[in-house]
Design goal:
56 residues, membrane, transmembrane helix, mainly alpha, single chain, 2 helices
């Protein structure tokens, strides 16, 4: 789930950058991209996955 959220944030950051939309400092394309990278790192670390595949 976090990987999908990261992909959506990367797409939003791309649109902000490609369309040259002026936003405030909080929602700049770099900040949105960094939030996406953080979510992607959590996804790769195994946090936020759907089902647990451990032994009982």
């Amino acid at each position: 789930m976090l990987g999908i959220a990261a992909a959506v944030l990367f797409f939003i950051a791309f649109l902000i950058n490609a369309a040259d939309i002026t936003t405030n400092d909080v929602f700049s394309s770099v900040n949105v991209m960094l939030i996406g990278l953080g979510l992607l790192a959590l996804h790769v670390a195994g946090i936020g996955h759907g089902r647990r595949t451990g032994r009982r």
